[in-house]
Every structure is written in C-alpha cells, then in structure tokens.
Specification:
Elements (H helix, E strand, L loop, with lengths): L29 E6 L5 E7 L5 E8 L3 E6 L3 E6 L4 E6 L4 E5 L8 E8 L2 E6 L2 E3 L2 E3 L2 E5 L4 E5 L4 E8 L2 E7 L10 E6 L6 E7 L5 E7 L2 E6 L3 E2 L2 E2 L5 E6 L4 E7 L4 E7 L2 E6 L2 E5 L6 E6 L5 E9 L2 E13 L4 E10 L6 E10 L5 E6 L6
Antiparallel strand pairs: 1-2, 1-32, 2-3, 4-5, 5-6, 6-7, 8-9, 9-12, 10-11, 12-13, 14-15, 15-16, 16-17, 18-19, 19-22, 20-21, 22-23, 24-25, 25-26, 26-27, 28-29, 29-30, 30-31
C-alpha cells in the first residue's frame, strides 16, 4: 500500500522553482543536479573526471525525481510539487511547474515527442480509490489533456505506438493489492486494456525492448507490507497482457535500462547485464562495500554511469559532503573505465541526477 498524499494541504514550501545562474554545465565530466525533499534548496555542480569541483550554483526545485530524456534534452520532475527542470543540450536550464490543479507531484514521465510529455500525477486516495491521472503537457508545464487513472503508477513508457503505465492496483485494503498495467492511446488517452495480477506486489519500473516491456516487479505482500522492493524481472507483452518471469534477484533491484538493445539491471550492490536473448545473466559486477548502495544507473554517452551513495558520509575541509562516487562502466563488458569521487556542497542531497558531459557534446 502506498503512502497517502495530502490533497489540498499547505505543507509545500513557498515560492516556485528557479533555474541556476552563472554556471556552464558543458564543462567537466559530469553535471550533477541535486535536490531536497522538504525545501526548494537545490543546487547544480560540475565535476571533473577526478572529482574536482569545477563550478557550483544554487537553484530552487523540490524533490526532482522522475526523469525522461531525448537526444536534445533531459527533463526532471518533482515528486511532491511537480516542479520541472529542463536541461537542454546547449547547457541551459529552465524551470517550470506542471499546471495541474490536483495532486502533489509526479510519479513517472516520458516523452511522447520532442516537445511534449506524458506524466503521471499523484493525487492519492479518494472516495473512488487511489487516483494517479495521466496528463499530456508541454515543456512550459501547460496541460493539453488529461485522463483519470485508478491505481498507483510508478512507470510510463512508449511501446510501439501505445503508452504503457504500470504500478500497483492499490486498493484501500493492501491485502487485495497487486500489480497493474494499463495500455493507453497517446493521442486520445483512451484506456484500451487493463491487466491486474493480485498475487504480485507492483510493476515498479519498465523499459521498452522491441514490442515488449521489461519490468521490475515486487514479489508480493505479506501482512500488509512488501516483501521486497522489486526482485523479479519480467517480460510483458502489451498486445496480449501475457507476463512471464525472466529471472529473480536475491537482493533488491534499484533500476534498469535498455542500453543499445541490452537490458542492464542495478541491484543494491551490483550491476547485471543480461544476455541478448534474456535467458541468463551474462555478466555480474559487485560494486559496493560497507554502508554503500547503488542509487542510480544512467546511460552516459558510450558508457554506463553508476552513482554509489556512501551512507557513512564525511565532510571535506571546505564544507563539501563526500556522499559517494560515480563508476563509469563499459556497457559491453561491465569493465570499470574510471571512478569519480562525488563531493558536493553540503545539503540534504535526497535526489541526485547525473548528466554525463557527452550529452552536451553528442
């Protein structure tokens, strides 16, 4: 069962999202955008490949969470206030807010073309059940159309010419909860099919592979609580609703991506590269020790970038937080190409987003 949103409350911080100024994101090996989940205190830094802090600037944005990317831009949207930060390939950033009257923020987003996105807005429990409507909006946040969806959805992707939203059924009684997938027409937002699997715990994240969706799914519920975050990898056929398990992981899965037709899965402590036919895990690379945990996995140009957070964080002499490091991997072999310490101005740093320099120079 998901936590309830507080519809109509005034717990959000005042003001509105504001972009940074005086920083060139195209310099350095990485641009890093980091936000807090309580206030709009946020920042942007650029780092050299050796971890050198090239530049840093403040910005205002709340809890940037959902991420979508095209070759020309990256968009980040907040989980509590639908703040948007749009990063262009020329290094500029502009901010906006999705103009949807209800809800507390976004649970997932995806581009439907270069200028428009489909975003799932978290409204929360209502008398009709848990509401997580889909909205089509532009880069300024202007909503063009919307459609109600019942359930709690944490992923939305384009598969062929359709949109696929996945997540949880989210009945008020969590004992009746399970996985849910909804197939929509991206133009009319008409719901064409809905599939439920009450025995499972939620289709948390999906990526498109050919005409299928490859998803992380939770194992299920026990005594009203999830038994795992997401430790099953499944294939979903959106044309029929057929769902088949690919493999199971022993530790919690964090995220997955499709890198040039190959599925890569990040668990809490390792990266896993699946064989092209998905019949086995071809390569497995443990990356953590002590109080470290993998937090993000992103495609960075010709490589994969893994952000590993160190929960035993320390503070440098100049007041920066030593929160972990970035590992650049060769996506074909999972060989480590380089490691970059991440030392950022000391804030809460709940949401951390990496943008590799190759994005700006593609």
């Amino acid at each position: 069962m998901v936590a309830l949103s507080l519809v109509g409350c005034s717990l959000l911080p005042p003001a509105a999202p504001q972009p940074p100024s005086g920083i060139d994101l195209t310099k350095g090996a990485y641009a890093v955008i980091y936000t807090d989940s309580i206030s709009r205190e946020a920042g942007v830094s650029t780092l050299g490949a050796d971890g050198t802090l090239v530049s840093s600037a403040k910005m205002a944005a709340l809890g940037l969470h959902a991420r979508a990317q095209t070759p020309d831009r990256i968009i980040l949207i907040g989980a509590r206030a639908a703040d948007m930060a749009v990063v262009e390939r020329d290094g500029s950033i502009h901010t906006a807010q999705i103009a949807y009257p209800d809800g507390t923020g976004a649970t997932a987003t995806t581009f439907i073309d270069d200028e428009h996105l489909a975003t799932l807005i978290n409204v929360g429990n209502t008398t009709e059940g848990y509401q997580n409507p889909i909205v089509i909006h532009d880069l300024s946040g202007r909503v063009l159309r919307s459609h109600p969806l019942q359930g709690y959805f944490t992923s939305i992707i384009r598969v062929g010419d359709k949109l696929l939203a996945t997540g949880q059924i989210s009945h008020p009684d969590s004992a009746e909860d399970g996985s849910r997938a909804v197939l929509l027409d991206p133009n009319s937002l008409e719901v064409q099919r809905t599939w439920d699997w009450p025995a499972n715990g939620g289709l948390d994240q999906c990526v498109a592979l050919d005409r299928s969706a490859i998803c992380l799914e939770t194992e299920g519920f026990k005594d009203g609580a999830r038994t795992h975050l997401a430790n099953h990898l499944v294939r979903l056929d959106p044309s029929t609703g057929a769902k088949a398990e690919i493999t199971t992981f022993t530790e919690d899965c964090i995220t997955l991506l499709n890198q040039a037709g190959r599925i890569v899965v990040a668990t809490a402590g390792a990266i896993h590269l699946l064989a092209p036919d998905l019949t086995r895990i071809e390569r497995h690379l443990p990356l953590t020790s002590g109080k470290e945990a993998i937090e993000t996995l992103t495609a960075g140009g010709a490589g994969l970038d893994v952000f590993i957070r160190d929960y035993d964080r320390t503070t440098t002499a100049d007041g920066r937080a030593d929160i972990g490091h970035i590992v650049r991997l060769d996506p074909r072999t999972l060989q480590i190409v380089r490691q970059t310490p991440m030392q950022l101005p000391n804030q809460q740093l709940v949401g951390v987003h990496l943008i590799a320099n190759e994005f700006f120079h593609a």
